[in-house]
Amino acid sequence: MAIERSGELAPAVPLKDASTVILVRDGDRGVEVFLLQRVRGMAFAGGMTVFPGGGVDPSDSAAAVAWAGPPVRWWSERFGTSESLAQALVLAAVRETFEECGVLLAGPTPDTVVADTTAFGPARRQLEAREFTFGEFLEREGLVLRADLLRPWSNWITPVGEGRRYDTRFFVAAAPEGQIADGDTSEADAVRWQTPQEAIAHWQDGGSVLLPPTWSQLTALSRFGSVAEILAAEPQITPILPTLVTGDGELRVEFPEQDGYYEAGPHPWAARGAN
User: Are 164 and 13 in contact (CB under 8 A)?
Assistant: First the structure.
């Protein structure tokens, strides 16, 4: 979701399906999460700190790719979607992660993963520019999509009243050994690895802006002691649809287990709901 407009709440707009991937790794300070600070002025979540991700492309559901891991039907059941959409969500998750931070969850065989994505730099930029599809890229490079490296995590829907609305499925994935997550994308001002606790403290100190879904995922991840524990978890995927509430010239987003989100007081985006 994004808080991106002022004035009275806009009429409901169609939902766009999207995928977001929470990359995790074990560090000296505990589990670390990869975060991007998006470029200010972007139409969606400008200036916000987020996980890699983006909208599903029509080509994601039509692609015929070599696939390793749980079949499309399994993903369909976990997310409660059609099989066509389930495939599109998984492909979008892998594609967006590659485009936004250079991490590629694919390998030359069903049980391997690319060790270094540097050679794919030009292709990454072409994918971001939509010069060819992700399915075409995988086929050209002889790569197998590693769906088994992803885990379904949660499902958040942008509130009614927002100018842009997404039905976003969150995944978690361990960062492949040897690959380097970077900020070489036009959509990020900065990137960083932080423990969930560090990311929340950074936000509390005013160093970042976290929207409810991001804060909620970080809060949940802070309860785990290792990547192995995270990957072994089997969260129930229940769609979360926050509610926008305005009052006293301020916007508030109501969502489950929200109390900690408002302990520090109003958020930078809250006044945007003022009339």
Answer: yes
pLDDT score of 117? 95
* CA dist list (Å): 77 to 70, 146, 215: 11, 18, 26
CA-nearest of 157, 158, 153, 151 to 170 is 153
Give the Cα separation of 158 and 217 in Å (integer).
15
Q: Would you say residue 272 has pLDDT above 70?
A: no
Q: Could you give the residue ranges of the DSSP H alpha helices within 155-265?
A: 196-204, 212-221, 227-232
Amino acid at 183: G
pLDDT 10s digits, 195-242: 999 999 999 998 898 999 999 999 999 999 999 999 999 999 999 999
The conformation of residue 173, written as its DSSP 8-state character, comes to: E
**Average pLDDT along the chain:** 88
Six-digit token string for 270: 């809250």
| pTM of the shown model | 0.89
Of 217, 215, 158, 167, the residue nearest 12 (C-alpha): 158
Comparing CA positions, the residue from 40, 57, 55, 56 lying closest to residue 188 is 40
Beta strand 150-157 pairing with 243-247? unpaired
